[in-house]
Amino acid sequence: MAGLIVELIISWVLLKFILHQNLLVLGFKINSKQLIAIIIGLFIPVVFLVIYLVGISLWVKSTYRLNPLYTFAAFKNASSYVLISVIYEELIFRGALLYILIKKIGTQKALLVSAISFGIYHWFTMGVLGQVVPMLFVFTITAIMGYIFALSFSISRTIFLPMAIHLGYNFTFMIVFSRSNMGEQLLIPMFKNDPVKTGVVFQTVTTVIHYIIFPFIVWLYLNYLKKRTASIQPT
C-alpha cells in the first residue's frame, strides 16, 4: 500500500512540474457514461475467460470444481494481491507517464511506447529474461494487451477503465480458475492430467483465441466507445 502512495506522489510531481496539472487529469473523477463503460470493461474479460476456460475443460473432460481446501483468508489475500498489483501496474504504464507522453509526442506514439514498455517489464516479472523464444512470446502477448490498456485510457479519459479490464482478467484467470503461480485458488481442474490429450493444432487454436481474439474483442468494444461517445469527458 505504501508503494501505491509513493506512486501517486511521484505522479502528482511529474504532472505538476511537466504539464502544470494535477492527478484529476488521469480521470479519477468520472461521470455516469464513464462508470457504465468501466463496469462493462470489467465484465468483458470475466465473460470471455469463463467461456474460454470452461470450454477447454469440457473438451479435455476435466471440468472445474470448487477447491475444498480454499479459505476466505486465502481468497482475501489473493484478491488483495491481484488488486494492488493491477493498480500498481496501471499507475506506472497508464498513469501520469502515458498522459504526459500523449501530450508531448502524440497519442499513437505514446500508446506504442506504453505497450513496448509493458512487454519488456513482463520479461522480468515472468522470469524469462535471457530465454529468446519465451521472451518473444511474453513480449508479444503482453505488449498487445499493454496497447489495449493504453488505448482504453486514451479513449475513456479515465485510468479506471484499463484498471477494470486488467482486474477483470487477472482476477478471473488467477483466482477464479487458478491459472497462475499463486497455486490452487477458488476453482481447480477435476484431474491433474487431462483425460483427453490435445495436439499442436488444438493448442495453437486455443492460444490464438486467448491472446489474439480476446484483445480484438476488447478493441471492438473500445472502438464502439469511441464512435458512440467520441470522447467521454469527466464532469
Automatic annotation (TrEMBL):
One Gene Ontology molecular-function label: hydrolase activity
E.C. number(s) listed in UniProt: 3.4.-.-
Membrane is among the record's keywords: yes
Transmembrane portions of the chain: 6-28, 35-60, 80-102, 109-126, 132-153, 160-180, 200-222
Keywords: Hydrolase, Membrane, Transmembrane, Transmembrane helix
InterPro entries for this protein: Rce1/LyrA-like_dom
Sequence ranges assigned to domain CAAX prenyl protease 2/Lysostaphin resistance protein A-like in this UniProt record: 81-171
Pfam families: Rce1-like
Protein name: CPBP family intramembrane glutamic endopeptidase
Source organism: Mucilaginibacter calamicampi
